[in-house]
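Note to self: keep these together.
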Amino acid sequence: MIERLTNAEKIRDAERRIGELIEKHAEWFFSSGSGGAHISLRKSDFDFSVVHNRLIFSCWTERGAQVWRIVGWESFGGKLLLEAARRTGAERAKLELIPRAKVSSGIEVLGESRRERCERLARLACELAYGARIERVGLSAGSRPGQPGRYARIILRLRSERIAVAGTVAESDAYNIDALLSSTLIWFARLSERMRPPFIKRLWLIVSENCAEAVARRVALLRNELRRAISIYEIDGGWQKLTHVRALEPGELWSSEPEKFRKPPRASLSELARKIVALAPEAIDVVRARHGETLRYNGLAFARVRRVMNRDRVWFGVEGSRRRVLDDESFADWNKLLDELKRHRRAEAEDHRHMLYRLAPEAWLESILRRDITRLDPGLIIAPLYAQFRTSRATGAAPRPIDLLALRREGRLVVIELKVKEDREHVFQGVDYWQRIEAHRRSGEIARARLFGVTRIADEPPIVYLVAPVLRFHRAFQTLARCINPEIEIYRFDINEDWRDGVHVVRRARAN
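Structure:
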């Protein structure tokens, strides 16, 4: 039964008891969601500590740092189940820590469940094609050896052709459209190279309820020959029936009005925000929104200014820690946070494993380029920094802003998507952003908002810049980029690995 951490005594007791459990095993598997991939951790890779009467869980992995506030916990069979929250409670999750010695049985159960769903998809798909038989059915490769994959990999055999069928079988991943498309198109490309006659001529995508339209909009952006080879089917909630989804032509993407575009908030900063920026103007910037100002130290949000009862107030604290109001009582903690940011949130920091150094690396890169976008491409004009273009909630991902929106000398818009780690979804995230910016450009909303002052915006589609350190592009990046319609101009920018010391473009090339 979950034990709620409702007072200081329970928090201290939980820290002690969890610590005793952790000490019993040198290696653990960590998962941040039901059905999610398990990440292998050593005891030294994670930590439980009490900060401001909050139990904080921190872990450091190859994918970056995670910090959560633990609000409840239980232990059974040596496993730890943690109820966690961050972003002031806006994001909640159930975390699992499982001793490596005990994880094999759990993975077997998960694998059996996914294989059963995969076989059900195969039977339903086979019923759609007269004379078809199931030639192959299985799961995609797991994130680690021995772990079950998240996607069905099915091949149907007909007399004169084969059909590839793919769909999500991980319940927690049902709406991750970019991941599904990226994984499936890589698989489809490999099949096309390896299969003997009869060749695979078609690809069927089986998607969950309520996300078929979003998938259809993504598919409409693919190369014509690939787009015409793909059919989309929606599976009902009971996994009993497949329904064909009408394909979209590229021109249909602009037939509906885009979401309302809000004009940027006031350009002037509040007096409080201006004073905070003055403490470290070379590192602190401000994200403006309708309901306040978020201050970031080299991209890491650490304070927020909001107007309450006709008075500006400051809340401070980084991700995973308790947000506190800045007043006389908390002033010492405010100064301590600033000192720690100055020490650890800089390129010259000695401890590269420190939480403040590892958190929000892409936001750090974005803040560097925002200060001087000409490091990436001379002549670019950057749009104001504020919370505006956000991902569609239909994708199932947490909403997040586009990294950078800029304007070239000739007036063409540029959508810039940044990564600092290998990310298979890099291409499709950039293309999704392109689609939404193009919709706003066609509607005239961007021109009316005067994001770039009086500079004229050309009557041409935006360009996409996909940026990452030279060794951090996913190995299938080029395969996926070539899947995109060449009318969408995508450029790959390789930057230096030590970008925190300053960004330099190593290579620039057209990707599709």
